[in-house]
Amino acid sequence: MEGCGKRARAGELTLDKLIDRTKKRGVQPAGIANVKRDTLAYLVFSSGTSGLPKAVMISHGNLNACYAQILISVFHAFQAQPPEKPEYTEYPMSLAFLPMYHTMGLHVYNFRHFIAPNTLIVLPSWDADKVLECITKYRVTSIALVPSLVFQLLSHPKLRSKEVDLSSLSGIGTGAAYLPPEAEKEFLNVLSNKGKKGGKIQRLSSGYGLSESTIAVASMPVQGMLGGKLGPKEGSAGVFLPGCSGRLCKEAPPGTPMEELEDVAPGEPGELYVQGPLTALGYWENEQATKEAFLPGGWLRTGDRFIYKDGHLWFQDRAKDTLKVSGVQVSPTEIEAVLKDHPEGYLSDACVAGVPGPRNDGELVPRAWVVLSPAGHKAGAKKVIADLNEWVQGQLSKPKQLRGGIEVVKVIPKNPTGKVLRRVLQDRYAKTHGKVKGKL
Questions:
Q1: If DSSP states are collapsed to H, E and C, what string results for 223-277?
Q2: Is the pLDDT of residue 324 over 90?
Q3: Pick from 287, 285, 275, 181: which is nearest to 236 by CA?
Q4: Does residue 240 contact residue 264 with C-beta atoms inside 8 Å?
Q5: Are 219 and 238 contacting, i.e. CB atoms less than 8 angstroms apart?
Q6: SS3 track for 285-327
Q7: Which of 180, 360, 421, 440 pairs as cysteine with 337 (C-beta 3.0–4.6 A)?
Q8: Average pLDDT over the chain, rounded to whole?
Q9: Where residue 270 falls among pLDDT bands split at 50, 70, 90?
Q10: How far apart, in whole angstroms, are the C-alpha atoms of residue 201 and residue 199?
Q11: C-alpha span between 387 and 373 (Å, rounded)
């Protein structure tokens, strides 16, 4: 749909035409409903990375708080760094491909445009070729990515070709998962090395959020916010947004009351619990899951592990994905980042998850599933696996070695929002090697 009647093309429906068509059909406007802060506004589905998606209940109060949060954040950001005058004269142009039934697509592509009008180019789904084509053809100014898509673009041969023009881009955001700083640097270098193409982008906008907290919990601040007290930190998920507070706690069973949780020591990883007006009402018709995640006092158990340092949150892993090998906590995300950082650039994607170890004692050990890049295909799977094992051994401690092996696959399974589905790979492994079962 084109923004407010502008940039209309043959076969496209502008907002003005949609309004006219509705009037001609005699559709009567709905009455204004009287709602309260805790009145249910809509249902949105969680990502479903560790099971079936759950319907999250978002209230009208959640929405009000969400957009008050955005306006406050933007106000302070503009005070620190006044925005440059845009090079375009019409509305900004964004590329939309994430599902709009998920909270990120719903807000970024829809709700936020009520306070900042935007023109959307809507794709049915992610297609790297189409994305690069549309950015060039429609002079796209902003795009929201997830880390796995950044890696796909980095290994795409057209990204560095002359036929792709990225000079219109003024903002690239990333979220939903961890993006290694090395990957961000490489992506920005590719853009800046193309002359003016992408040179105006100094860093990718990152943050952290989840459906159960309406959308956002933390975001990367701009340099100089709050009188110079805040600034960006490479590799972090950012700082708590207005209205949000949190605790990092030691591992505990789901549903443990907040007063029984133990905080981790400074600088140690812990599971993040957040509190604030953006916390959802709970899960629709799922009382057990609601009790486990939504705690008294407005607290929400995120299921994600972070380190809190220098006022910033540093993502470690999903609590359910973290392995304990020989008594040591092992982060699959850390191993994935090391694999993708191999100097030969062998991989376009990678996933690490736990599988039964050789001692058959119930302990899970790391196993990697990898997708080869053009450089990886050229080297051959046998050499890539040998080189990756040697690389990991030189970079990480013994408990983090890939004792479960490395397997080359064509694609890493993901949900529609780009989050990796580790359980799918674990289930496949279990069918051929035996059941994957964690040690309690």
A1: CCHHHHCECCCCCCCEEECCCCEEEEECCCCCCCCHHHCCECCCCCCEEEEEECC
A2: no
A3: 181
A4: no
A5: yes
A6: CCHHHHHHHEECCCEEEEEEEEEEECCEEEEEEECCCCEEECC
A7: 180
A8: 85
A9: very high
A10: 5
A11: 14
- What class is the 35-243+275-285 domain? alpha beta
Q: Name the pLDDT band for 195 (thresholds 50, 70, 90).
A: very low
Q: How far apart are CA 269 and CA 362, in angstroms?
A: 24
Which tokens sit at 425?
A: 């790979």
CB 312 within 8 A of CB 206: no
Q: What are the respective helix, strand and coil percentages of the chain, to the nearest 5?
A: 30, 25, 45
Assign domain 323-433 to its CATH superfamily. Answer: ANL, C-terminal domain (3.30.300.30)
Q: Which residues pair with 230 in a beta bridge?
A: 225
For tokens 């401690």, name the residue. 397
DSSP annotation of 408 reads E
**Sign of the CA dihedral 375, 377, 389, 155?**
positive
338-360 residue pLDDT tens: 999 899 989 989 999 999 877 65
Domain boundaries along the sequence of the chain: 35-243+275-285, 323-433
